[in-house]
Amino acid sequence: MEPYVEGAARAGGRGAPPVYAGRTVALLTQHRKELVITPVLEAGLGCVVELVTGFDTDRFGTFTREIPRPGTLVETARKKARQGMVLSGLPLGVASEGAFGPDPVIGFMPWNVELVIWVDDALGLEVMGTVANSRTNFDHLVTADWDELSAFARKVGFPDHHLVVRPDGADDPRVRKGLSDWEALEGAFAWALAQSAGGRVFVETDMRAHANPTRMTNIRAAAEDLVSKLRCPCPACRAPGFAVAGRVPGRPCELCGTPTPEPVAEVHRCPRCGHEQRAEPDGAPARAPAAVCPFCNP
Ligand SMILES: [Zn+2]
Ligand SMILES: [Zn+2]
Questions:
Q1: pLDDT in tens, 208-241
Q2: How, if at all, do strands 163-166 and 110-120 pair?
Q3: 290 C-alpha vs ligand 1 centroid, how far in Å?
Q4: Nearest of 69, 45, 49, 48 to residue 57 by alpha carbon
Q5: Which of 67, 106, 260, 276 has the smallest number of Cβ neighbours within 10 A?
Q6: How many angstroms is it from 233 CA to the middle of ligand 1?
């Protein structure tokens, strides 16, 4: 078996698994995600992405809450990929799913997680590309004032980023989505204000991919993460997708040497055979700050 060289696989492509060159993969999306996913996958893997349309992916849930998302991000993405595989009859599927909320650490900054899942029924594996960051315009406003609304709209990048308007609160079924020019926004505002029992309309950012260029950028980054993982073959079975699957805590404290929750190693795992390897994270300090030490700073 040829030796495993991670650097070559990641940087030069010589170690990239040829397994997907020329293969067709189904992409189920109705919100134009193919614009960022297809070029990244085709350039990075040599595959051919077949767009599967004609299926309402909103059946798996919407960001505007008409249809709740019942499962986790991974479950929803997997359902979409599998639906695309069924409709196309292909053993390879890819799909994407995102979520928005407050920053998990700071709490009040908006946060975006994007996932692109790769399902391969021929090899029996599943690999996920992810990105999580605060690059998002996710926000809302309740107002009766057009000036306040137009200031909000400029702040969140309207009209490149579209808006959603409702008369009475986040769950009002009366809704105008995909507002993409000032005239449409003004009309929707007047409509909602006239309908509103409380006299204040609910405005929010439209988080659907085609309505949100910032989100598209994050979906592209998640697709790039997926490609870099798929280009790493397992040293044991050569299947693609040998990537970080977890971190081992225990980096010693800089003062007293007590193991801390900071990672001391990464675990790379094969999605097919389960082979694992420990690796020191690149550029990580050997010692953890005393601030995170359970002995020095309990
Ligand atoms: Zn393997
Ligand atoms: Zn300590």
A1: 999 999 999 999 999 999 999 999 999 999 999 9
A2: unpaired
A3: 38
A4: 69
A5: 106
A6: 8
